[in-house]
Amino acid sequence: MKMDDYLSFKMEKKQMAQRTILVTGANKGIGLEICRQLARLEMRVILTARDKDKGLEAVKLLEPEKGTVEFHQLDVTDPASIAALHDFLHQEVQQLDGLINNAGIGVGTGGADEADIQEMRAILETNLFGPIQLTQALLPLLKKSSDGRIVNVSSGMGSLTNMGSGYAGYRISKTALNSFTAVLAQDLADTNITVNTMHPGWVRTDMGGQNAERSVEEGADTAVWLATAPNLPSGKFFMDRKEIPW
What digits encode the pLDDT tens for the residues 101-118? Predict the structure, then answer.
């Protein structure tokens, strides 16, 4: 780690200590690494996943880290699951300082001319409507923070500027998530909440495959930065801590 990066890391750690940040889809891959990096910054991390056993196993993996990591079951497509998380947080925390909407699926390879509609609906339920429902439910707690952060994990495949072919359902879901980010940032412009989205790159995960060019550490970095660094803009799209085109 370069000295400038180290000093920045130390400053962020000092300024953001004791913050509570919730991460969805965090039992593996980028989500798990986001939790690891947040824990190293001594955050209180709420790690969520659909599968209870996998979520608890993920928490065990993070026990050596300095922060507090705890698990709560969450299926972002299930209103009852979101309501249970909402009730838990209202009882256990006074405020929520960050929400990282990482949970997502990527299935199907067909283009828009042949994509299966039912498959597309399933992708949109997880990648778009899930983050929207969860964000709406947790906004009251985020508004109690002096510096609330919402980070949506998107993809370069959702960029209109660099749009490609194939994977229509996934591309459309991420483009729509980007739009949600931009609209929400405007809607919350008069609040203390910053809203941004990020592209992790092609990362070596179950979804990205082992031939991907980036490590999970690299893929998670910008999400952690957006959730912790001081004085960030709102309503932007980032990769490697730099703004990229929509």
Answer: 999 998 778 899 999 999
